[in-house]
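A further point concerns the way the authors explain their paired sequence and structure data. Since the whole study asks how a given chain folds, the encoding of that fold should be made plain. A single example would do more here than another paragraph of explanation. An entry of this sort, consisting of the sequence and the corresponding backbone structure tokens, reads as follows:

_____
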Amino acid sequence: MSRYTPTSHMYPATLEQLREFFKDDRFATEAGCKIDSMDDDSVTCSLEIQPFHRNAAGGVMGGAIFTLADLAFAVHSNRDYAINMTENLTLTLSSSINYLKPVISTTIYAKSSIINKGRNIGVFDIKVYDDKGRDIALITTTGYTKGNDYS
């Protein structure tokens, strides 16, 4: 459970609005990542594994797993920005990923949760798991909230 409890006015975005905005996150969407659900404390995204997600040894590329986790963080940390773009934008300062198990299923999920959120710095946990409930990777991402432009 999150130690940070947002107020309801902080996340006015609907799931449909978030999907519409993040469809322009071309790397993640063209890789097949999808936004599945959200609530006040988390965002969940999914990726159906395709042949192009596999490495030369036949396993799922670590980059595919990280891309899914990065999208979950981006959606979670930028819900307000996605709707009116006058809110502050959050960008990644650092990410650390631990790969726990190989992917042996057809779909993986990433669930982002807030560990701590200050005025400018937020720390998020993203858990990647498969459709059998096996933990695949754990990611900790620190984000910096700045003005409402990308520069």
About this structure: The chain has a mean pLDDT of 88. The helical segments are 15-22, 26-31, 62-77, 79-84. The first helix runs from residue 15 to 22.
